[in-house]
From TrEMBL:
Membrane-spanning residues: 20-42, 63-80, 186-205
Name of the protein in question: ABC transporter permease subunit
UniProt feature coiled coil, ranges: none
Top-level taxonomic group: Bacteria
A Pfam family matched in the record: BPD_transp_1
Similarity comment: family membership: Belongs to the binding-protein-dependent transport system permease family. HisMQ subfamily.
Topology in the lipid bilayer: Multi-pass membrane protein
UniProt lineage: Bacteria, Pseudomonadati, Pseudomonadota, Alphaproteobacteria, Rhodobacterales
InterPro entries noted in UniProt: AA_ABC_transptr_permease_3TM (IPR010065), ArtM/GltK/GlnP/TcyL/YhdX-like (IPR043429), MetI-like (IPR000515), MetI-like_sf (IPR035906)
CDD domains xref list: TM_PBP2
Amino acid sequence: MPFDWIIDYWDILVLGAARTIALTLLAIVVAAPLSILLGWALASGPRRGRWPINAYVEVFRNTPYMIHLFFIFFALPRFGIGLDPYGAAVASLCLMVAAFGTKIVESGLRATPPGQTEAALSLGFNGAQVFYHVQLVPALARVWPALCSLATMALLDSAVVSLIAVEELTWAATFIETRNFRSFETFFFSSLLFLLISFGLRRSLMAFGQRVVARGLAQ
Protein backbone atom coordinates (compact mmCIF):
# COMPACT_ATOMS: atom_id res chain seq x y z
CA MET A 1 0.00 0.00 0.00
CA PRO A 2 1.48 3.41 -0.97
CA PHE A 3 0.11 5.17 2.11
CA ASP A 4 0.57 2.50 4.79
CA TRP A 5 3.43 4.57 6.27
CA ILE A 6 0.85 7.05 7.60
CA ILE A 7 0.09 4.70 10.49
CA ASP A 8 3.74 4.67 11.58
CA TYR A 9 4.11 8.47 11.45
CA TRP A 10 0.58 9.50 12.39
CA ASP A 11 1.62 11.09 15.70
CA ILE A 12 4.23 13.29 13.97
CA LEU A 13 1.71 14.43 11.37
CA VAL A 14 -0.93 15.25 13.99
CA LEU A 15 1.57 17.17 16.13
CA GLY A 16 2.82 19.09 13.06
CA ALA A 17 -0.72 19.95 11.98
CA ALA A 18 -1.61 21.08 15.53
CA ARG A 19 1.43 23.36 15.67
CA THR A 20 0.60 24.81 12.24
CA ILE A 21 -2.91 25.66 13.45
CA ALA A 22 -1.60 27.07 16.75
CA LEU A 23 0.97 29.29 15.02
CA THR A 24 -1.65 30.64 12.61
CA LEU A 25 -4.27 31.34 15.28
CA LEU A 26 -1.74 32.99 17.58
CA ALA A 27 -0.57 35.24 14.73
CA ILE A 28 -4.17 36.19 13.91
CA VAL A 29 -5.10 36.92 17.55
CA VAL A 30 -2.05 39.13 18.13
CA ALA A 31 -2.18 40.86 14.73
CA ALA A 32 -5.92 41.67 14.81
CA PRO A 33 -5.84 44.50 17.41
CA LEU A 34 -2.60 45.83 15.90
CA SER A 35 -4.25 45.95 12.45
CA ILE A 36 -7.27 47.81 13.82
CA LEU A 37 -5.10 50.33 15.70
CA LEU A 38 -2.79 51.02 12.73
CA GLY A 39 -5.70 50.98 10.25
CA TRP A 40 -7.49 53.62 12.33
CA ALA A 41 -4.27 55.68 12.55
CA LEU A 42 -3.97 55.68 8.74
CA ALA A 43 -7.64 56.46 8.16
CA SER A 44 -8.29 59.01 10.92
CA GLY A 45 -5.13 59.51 12.97
CA PRO A 46 -2.71 62.43 12.97
CA ARG A 47 -0.92 62.92 9.66
CA ARG A 48 2.49 63.06 11.37
CA GLY A 49 2.08 59.51 12.65
CA ARG A 50 1.17 58.00 9.29
CA TRP A 51 4.55 57.87 7.54
CA PRO A 52 6.21 55.36 9.94
CA ILE A 53 3.12 53.15 9.69
CA ASN A 54 3.15 53.37 5.91
CA ALA A 55 6.88 52.57 5.91
CA TYR A 56 6.31 49.47 8.07
CA VAL A 57 3.41 48.31 5.89
CA GLU A 58 5.27 48.83 2.61
CA VAL A 59 8.38 47.01 3.86
CA PHE A 60 6.45 43.94 4.98
CA ARG A 61 4.09 43.89 1.98
CA ASN A 62 6.85 44.22 -0.62
CA THR A 63 9.53 41.87 0.68
CA PRO A 64 9.40 38.06 0.96
CA TYR A 65 8.14 36.58 4.21
CA MET A 66 11.19 34.30 4.36
CA ILE A 67 13.46 37.36 4.64
CA HIS A 68 11.42 38.67 7.59
CA LEU A 69 11.74 35.30 9.29
CA PHE A 70 15.50 35.03 8.72
CA PHE A 71 16.09 38.65 9.79
CA ILE A 72 14.23 38.16 13.08
CA PHE A 73 15.83 34.78 13.82
CA PHE A 74 19.39 35.31 12.57
CA ALA A 75 20.00 39.09 12.52
CA LEU A 76 18.22 40.43 15.62
CA PRO A 77 20.52 38.51 18.04
CA ARG A 78 23.33 40.81 16.84
CA PHE A 79 21.37 43.66 18.43
CA GLY A 80 20.73 41.76 21.66
CA ILE A 81 17.24 40.51 20.71
CA GLY A 82 17.40 36.74 20.58
CA LEU A 83 14.29 34.64 19.99
CA ASP A 84 13.90 30.86 19.90
CA PRO A 85 12.53 29.34 16.66
CA TYR A 86 8.90 29.44 17.86
CA GLY A 87 9.20 33.03 19.08
CA ALA A 88 10.74 34.13 15.79
CA ALA A 89 8.02 32.30 13.83
CA VAL A 90 5.19 33.90 15.81
CA ALA A 91 6.75 37.39 15.69
CA SER A 92 7.38 37.27 11.94
CA LEU A 93 3.91 35.91 11.18
CA CYS A 94 2.27 38.57 13.40
CA LEU A 95 4.19 41.41 11.74
CA MET A 96 3.35 40.09 8.26
CA VAL A 97 -0.36 39.60 9.00
CA ALA A 98 -0.62 43.00 10.74
CA ALA A 99 0.98 44.78 7.75
CA PHE A 100 -1.58 43.38 5.31
CA GLY A 101 -4.40 43.66 7.85
CA THR A 102 -3.67 47.35 8.44
CA LYS A 103 -4.37 48.29 4.83
CA ILE A 104 -7.49 46.10 4.72
CA VAL A 105 -8.93 47.70 7.87
CA GLU A 106 -7.97 51.18 6.63
CA SER A 107 -9.88 50.61 3.39
CA GLY A 108 -12.94 49.49 5.34
CA LEU A 109 -12.82 52.52 7.63
CA ARG A 110 -12.38 54.95 4.72
CA ALA A 111 -15.47 53.49 3.05
CA THR A 112 -17.70 54.79 5.85
CA PRO A 113 -19.66 57.81 4.53
CA PRO A 114 -18.82 60.96 6.57
CA GLY A 115 -22.53 61.70 6.83
CA GLN A 116 -23.07 58.62 9.01
CA THR A 117 -20.46 59.83 11.51
CA GLU A 118 -21.97 63.32 11.57
CA ALA A 119 -25.46 61.88 12.04
CA ALA A 120 -24.31 59.73 14.97
CA LEU A 121 -22.64 62.73 16.65
CA SER A 122 -25.79 64.78 16.19
CA LEU A 123 -27.77 62.00 17.91
CA GLY A 124 -25.56 62.28 21.00
CA PHE A 125 -23.10 59.41 20.42
CA ASN A 126 -19.70 60.01 22.00
CA GLY A 127 -16.46 59.45 20.10
CA ALA A 128 -15.97 55.84 21.26
CA GLN A 129 -19.55 54.90 20.38
CA VAL A 130 -19.24 56.47 16.94
CA PHE A 131 -15.99 54.64 16.26
CA TYR A 132 -17.29 51.24 17.38
CA HIS A 133 -20.89 51.26 16.12
CA VAL A 134 -20.66 53.51 13.05
CA GLN A 135 -17.10 53.00 11.79
CA LEU A 136 -15.38 49.84 13.07
CA VAL A 137 -18.11 47.18 13.01
CA PRO A 138 -19.49 48.13 9.55
CA ALA A 139 -15.90 48.37 8.26
CA LEU A 140 -15.10 44.87 9.52
CA ALA A 141 -18.29 43.55 7.93
CA ARG A 142 -17.24 45.03 4.58
CA VAL A 143 -13.70 43.64 4.61
CA TRP A 144 -14.33 40.36 6.48
CA PRO A 145 -13.87 38.13 3.36
CA ALA A 146 -10.51 39.83 2.69
CA LEU A 147 -9.47 39.26 6.32
CA CYS A 148 -10.41 35.58 6.00
CA SER A 149 -8.22 35.33 2.89
CA LEU A 150 -5.38 36.96 4.85
CA ALA A 151 -5.76 34.31 7.55
CA THR A 152 -5.50 31.61 4.89
CA MET A 153 -2.36 33.27 3.53
CA ALA A 154 -0.84 33.25 7.03
CA LEU A 155 -1.60 29.53 7.35
CA LEU A 156 0.11 28.74 4.04
CA ASP A 157 3.10 31.01 4.77
CA SER A 158 3.59 29.24 8.10
CA ALA A 159 5.14 26.37 6.10
CA VAL A 160 8.25 28.55 5.69
CA VAL A 161 9.03 28.46 9.42
CA SER A 162 10.17 24.84 9.01
CA LEU A 163 13.39 26.40 7.61
CA ILE A 164 14.37 27.45 11.16
CA ALA A 165 13.44 24.01 12.59
CA VAL A 166 9.96 24.85 13.85
CA GLU A 167 8.28 21.45 13.98
CA GLU A 168 5.08 22.22 12.10
CA LEU A 169 3.39 20.27 9.29
CA THR A 170 5.95 20.91 6.54
CA TRP A 171 8.77 20.03 8.93
CA ALA A 172 6.92 16.78 9.77
CA ALA A 173 6.51 15.92 6.07
CA THR A 174 10.20 16.57 5.39
CA PHE A 175 11.19 14.48 8.42
CA ILE A 176 9.03 11.57 7.26
CA GLU A 177 10.26 11.79 3.63
CA THR A 178 13.88 11.46 4.75
CA ARG A 179 12.98 8.15 6.38
CA ASN A 180 10.49 6.46 4.04
CA PHE A 181 11.92 7.94 0.78
CA ARG A 182 8.37 8.27 -0.59
CA SER A 183 8.49 11.90 -1.67
CA PHE A 184 5.32 11.92 -3.79
CA GLU A 185 3.11 10.15 -1.24
CA THR A 186 4.46 12.12 1.72
CA PHE A 187 4.09 15.60 0.25
CA PHE A 188 0.82 14.68 -1.46
CA PHE A 189 -0.67 13.67 1.90
CA SER A 190 0.75 16.75 3.67
CA SER A 191 -0.77 18.91 0.92
CA LEU A 192 -4.14 17.28 1.58
CA LEU A 193 -3.80 18.12 5.28
CA PHE A 194 -2.97 21.74 4.43
CA LEU A 195 -6.01 21.85 2.14
CA LEU A 196 -8.32 20.48 4.85
CA ILE A 197 -6.94 22.85 7.51
CA SER A 198 -7.14 25.85 5.17
CA PHE A 199 -10.70 25.01 4.14
CA GLY A 200 -11.77 24.48 7.76
CA LEU A 201 -10.10 27.71 8.93
CA ARG A 202 -11.75 29.79 6.22
CA ARG A 203 -15.21 28.30 6.81
CA SER A 204 -14.85 28.76 10.58
CA LEU A 205 -13.78 32.40 10.22
CA MET A 206 -16.62 33.13 7.77
CA ALA A 207 -19.13 31.60 10.20
CA PHE A 208 -17.57 33.57 13.08
CA GLY A 209 -17.88 36.77 11.07
CA GLN A 210 -21.51 36.13 10.17
CA ARG A 211 -22.39 35.60 13.82
CA VAL A 212 -20.20 38.10 15.69
CA VAL A 213 -19.85 40.94 13.15
CA ALA A 214 -23.49 40.69 12.06
CA ARG A 215 -24.51 40.76 15.73
CA GLY A 216 -22.45 43.91 16.20
CA LEU A 217 -24.24 45.53 13.27
CA ALA A 218 -27.61 44.60 14.72
CA GLN A 219 -26.88 46.23 18.10
